[in-house]
Structure formats: structure tokens, C-alpha cells
């Protein structure tokens, strides 16, 4: 009996090296927020958990930590660093105050493990989605690059006995500049990991 056929997206032609970059994928951890877009165009929050001091701290401090990781000693010894840390502290205080007084007003992008490419993003969600669902997605790439786009759910697989779901999506209206930011981030991350492996074995 012949094995079942598997339908895969058509790969870009060999004559389109720029287009092939869209297919490079990495496992990464970025700040992410996603919401379900209903048929009426209303965007509904997916996560029902309120912002906590821990999630607020993670969202505020991650961009600065990413910036320090990328710039190394050049920023560590800079007089700008204390001011950046002071802004982070003040922002964290303000957001915690808002989360206490008006919980529904604070919806934070959260550090999320993703599988990322220039064509889509995969992640694990506590909520099940249907293939074809439209999501409004917000990604914050290191150090402070905001990407907002729509994505279509292409796969939803139950995990952990139905407690979680592995979601695969495809971007549907990603701006050209935002796709370029994504691809550059992916290539940079790949180069950094390769450099780290080489240093480890040298």
C-alpha cells in the first residue's frame, strides 16, 4: 500500500534567493500577543489571565536584556545604561499600578516560545483554534522592533491531553518592511548561534 501523500507549500524557485529567505525557520523566544479576530471584525483577547507583577516585569525587562546581549560591553559601560534601567523601573511601577487599579486596561505581550519564519509563526496556546481562524498578532523583536500583522491558522494539534495546543499560522498581510525585519532577526539569531557553537568547540 502506497504511503499517504503529504501536501506541502510550493518552495520558491532557485532563481529567487531573496524569496527563499522566507522559509528559514528558527526556534526563538520573543514578546508576543495574539487575539482572535471574529467574523464581525471584533478582536477578542485570547488570554484571560490578568497581568501580574511577574508578567509585567518580563515584558518590560526583556527588550533591555536583548539589547545588552546584542551590544555587549559597548552598552554595559555606557552612561546611557542607568537611564535605560531607570525608565524600565518607572514603566514597571506605572504598569503595576494600572494592573492593580484597572486590571482590564493592562494587556501585556508575554515572552513566548515560538517557531518563527518570514512567512508565519508557530506557538503553543492554552486555547484551541480552528484551521482558517484569523489572529491579530503582535511580535516584539529584539531589541525594540514592533510587528503587528494578521495570521491564518493552518494547523492546530492537541497536546498534553488537550490542555495545550500546538498552533501553526501563516501571515496574511505582513508588510514588506516587517517581513524584512523578521528575516534579518532570524539570520542574525542563526549567525549568533553558529558563532556560539564554534566558540564552544574551539
Let me know the average pLDDT: 79
- Indicate the percent of residues in helices: 25-40%
What's the arrangement of strands in the largest beta sheet?
A: 1-3-4-7-6-5
Q: If helices are DSSP runs of H or I spanning 4 or more residues, what is the number of helices? A: 5
Cα Rg: 19 Å
Query: Tally of extended strands?
Result: 7
Give the uncertain stretches in residue-range form.
1-15
Distance between the termini: 50 Å
Determine the oligomeric state from the structure: single chain
Overall shape: globular
Summarize the biggest pleated sheet: 6 strands, antiparallel, barrel
Written as H for each helix and E for each strand, in order along the chain, the element string is HEEHHHEEEEEH
Portion in strands: 25-35%
Helix and strand content put the structural class at: alpha+beta
Describe the structure.
The chain contains five helices and seven strands. The protein has 202 residues and is α+β, with helices and mostly antiparallel strands. It has a six-stranded antiparallel beta barrel. The chain has helices at 17-20, 53-71, 73-76, 80-101, 176-201, and strands at residues 26-37, 43-45, 110-116, 121-125, 134-141, 145-159, 164-171. Residues 1-15 have low confidence and may be disordered. The longest helix is centred in the C-terminal third of the chain and has 26 residues, at 176-201.
Summarize the structure.
The protein is 37% helix and 29% strand. It has five helices and seven strands. α2 runs antiparallel to α4 (80-101).
